[in-house]
């Protein structure tokens, strides 16, 4: 049976040229290539209207950076299609290999000589006065933040039905371990190894300095509400899709039953990528 290969490509001249050559290489091997163009992030979630990848895909190659990878994950949706990132330019946390090794790695994958590592993603349910208004997923993070001129948000947070605190802050990040090296890290959150089973809660510029990042078990259900009428508050998922929320909304965040199946290579080391991306010298200054 002919294999169908997904190809998601960064909107970049070098990436498109490499993708054209790679697609030609795949077609010559008798494979069918389904290529997805990258569009602009959506302003609002849309239930049931987003086009998903075909169920017939054997795997998906992502040629680009972390943003392109997150877009590809959203395209796959809940389907357990193996996915691999190929970096262009700077090191990406989500890339497993580099463009110069693309065909070599593809040969091994097409011969079924690979393993996958399931990575947690989050599911997000938005309710307005008890009625569901949106259902989304996030591989990196869910972010609630205020606009430039809005006052501090007061974000009431419950864990498994137990009241945690009212965060008074510019916003709140709920991240997976994979997403701990993204916005959460910039906001002062810790780096969590991608295999650690947990969910990270990081306040953005909290008014109370004792409000520190918190990691909860990945079995936890997190409920978030705005504790007062605050205008210009947005909820975004992976920086790919967003919606305005107010004090009428309840956001429920939990571990998705559908992880992302990341293709792994034996020579790829998490800590090597971490050191390269964060420019750790490893020696005396």
The low-confidence runs, each spanning 5 or more residues with pLDDT under 50, are 45-49
How many DSSP helices?
A: 5
Task: Give the % helix.
Answer: 10-25%
How much beta, percentage-wise? Answer: 35-45%
Global outline: elongated
Q: Radius of gyration, Cα only, in angstroms?
A: 20 Å
Spatial strand order of the main sheet: 8-7-18-15-10-11
Q: Pairing-aware structural class of the strands and helices?
A: alpha+beta
SSE string, helices as H and strands as E: EHEEHEEHEEEEEEEHEEEEEEEH
Specify the biggest β-sheet. Answer: 6 strands, antiparallel
Q: How far apart lie the N and C ends?
A: 57 Å
Count all strands and give the number. Answer: 19
Average of pLDDT:
89
Walk me through the structure:
With 285 residues, the protein is of the alpha+beta class. 17% of the residues lie in helices and 38% in strands. It contains five helices and 19 strands. A six-stranded antiparallel β-sheet has the order 8-7-18-15-10-11, with no helix packed on it. The longest helix has 16 residues, at 13-28. The radius of gyration is 20 Å and the shape is elongated. The protein starts with a strand and ends in a 7-residue tail after the last helix. Mean pLDDT is 89; it is low at 45-49.
Summarize the structure.
With 285 residues, this protein is α+β, with helices and mostly antiparallel strands. It contains five helices and 19 strands. It has helices spanning 13-28, 66-76, 102-110, 183-186, 270-278; strands at 4-9, 32-36, 57-63, 83-87, 97-98, 115-119, 122-128, 131-138, 141-146, 153-159, 162-169, 171-175, 198-204, 214-217, 222-226, 233-237, 241-245, 249-255, 260-264.
């Amino acid at each position: 049976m002919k294999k169908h290969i997904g190809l998601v490509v960064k909107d970049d001249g070098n990436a498109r040229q490499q993708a054209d050559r790679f697609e030609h290489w795949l077609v010559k091997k008798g494979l069918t290539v389904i290529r997805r163009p990258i569009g602009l992030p959506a302003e609002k979630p849309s239930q049931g209207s987003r086009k998903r990848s075909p169920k017939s895909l054997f795997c998906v190659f992502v040629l680009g950076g972390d943003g392109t990878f997150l877009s590809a994950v959203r395209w796959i949706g809940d389907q357990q299609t193996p996915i691999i990132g190929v970096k262009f330019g700077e090191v990406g946390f989500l890339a497993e290999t580099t463009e110069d090794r693309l065909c070599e790695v593809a040969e091994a994958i097409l011969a079924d000589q690979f393993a996958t590592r399931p990575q947690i993603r989050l599911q997000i349910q938005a309710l307005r006065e008890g009625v569901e208004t949106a259902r989304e997923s996030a591989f990196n993070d869910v972010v609630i933040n205020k606009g430039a001129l809005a006052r501090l948000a007061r974000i009431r947070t419950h864990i498994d039905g137990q009241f945690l605190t009212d965060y008074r802050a510019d916003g709140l990040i709920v991240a997976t371990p994979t997403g701990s090296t993204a916005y959460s890290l910039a906001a002062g959150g810790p780096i969590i190894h991608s295999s650690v089973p947990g969910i990270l809660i990081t306040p953005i510029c909290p008014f109370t300095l004792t409000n520190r990042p918190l990691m909860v078990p990945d079995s936890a259900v997190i409920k978030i509400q705005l504790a007062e009428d605050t205008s210009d508050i947005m909820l975004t998922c992976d920086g790919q899709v967003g919606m305005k929320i107010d004090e009428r909304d309840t956001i429920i965040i939990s571990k998705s039953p559908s992880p992302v199946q990341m293709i792994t290579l034996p020579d790829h080391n998490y800590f090597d990528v971490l050191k390269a991306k964060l420019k750790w010298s490893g020696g005396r200054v």
